[in-house]
Amino acid sequence: MATQAKFHITTRNGRQRALWLRLFGSDVLPVTAAAPHEVYTPDGRARLVYDLDVVAIGTNGRRRLAAYIAARRWGTTFEAALRDVAFGWTVDATDCELVAEPVTEPAQNSRVETRGAISGPTVPPSGRTPRPRRKSRERRAYGRSWSETTNRLLIERRDLWAQLAEV
User: Fold this and answer.
1) What number of other Cβ atoms are within 10 A of residue 85's Cβ?
2) Mean pLDDT, the chain, as a whole number?
3) Contact in structure between 123 and 77 (CB atoms under 8 Å)
4) Which of the 8 DSSP states describes residue 105?
5) How far apart are CA 161 and CA 145, in angstroms?
6) Which stretches of the chain are assigned E, i.e. beta strand?
7) What is the share, in percent, of the chain residues with pLDDT greater than 70?
């Protein structure tokens, strides 16, 4: 990874560094340019990003990144995430800084099947995309609708309702 790319970045963010170490075996990533460029998010905000050098991270690095994306992005399969990564991937430049000489580590080329490296995918083996859960206020009480619940209470407490009707 270190020998193929011209520019490398590292991060000051501890969580991001831990993720990079888990996915790529290094806290130094290859990028295509020395300076970040501006992109616009779907909600119109601008942010600075680096373009990850997907060729320099190697096949195993691309596969681990795709597996991570498939596990985190709702309804994304591994194959779709692998296509996204092959097309290009950006790294948020907020906590990143350019480094002079990266250190090559042997864990960079470990296989994607490394135990415990990545969570399971969000798409089950059947290929059906799971539906998102309803918000708690939209859930039905005890799995029933309001009318079913009231009817059940009326039937279960019929004797109590008869006593109330006599009074």
Assistant:
1) 21
2) 76
3) yes
4) -
5) 21
6) 7-11, 28-31, 37-40, 46-52, 89-92, 96-99
7) 69
Smallest Cα–Cα separation from 54: which of 99, 90, 79, 28? 90
Per-residue pLDDT averaged across 43-50, rounded? 88
Torsion of Cα atoms, 67 then 9 then 51 then 114, to 10°: -10
The string of DSSP codes covering 30-56 is EES-SS-EEEE-TTS-EEEEEEE-TTT
Joined tokens for residue 154: 């009326």
CA distance between the termini of the chain: 84
CA angle 71–9–86, rounded 5-degree value: 45
Specify the pTM.
0.57
pLDDT in tens, 77-122: 889 999 988 888 888 888 888 887 655 554 454 554 554 445 555 5
pLDDT in tens, 5-30: 688 999 888 888 988 888 888 889 89
User: Domain map of the chain by residue range?
Assistant: 7-109, 136-166
Radius of gyration of the chain, Cα coordinates, nearest whole angstrom: 26
When comparing pLDDT for 50 and 114, which is higher?
Answer: 50
Distance CA(71)–CA(119), nearest Å, equals 6
Cβ-based neighbours of 107, under 8 Å, separated by 6 or more: 25, 26
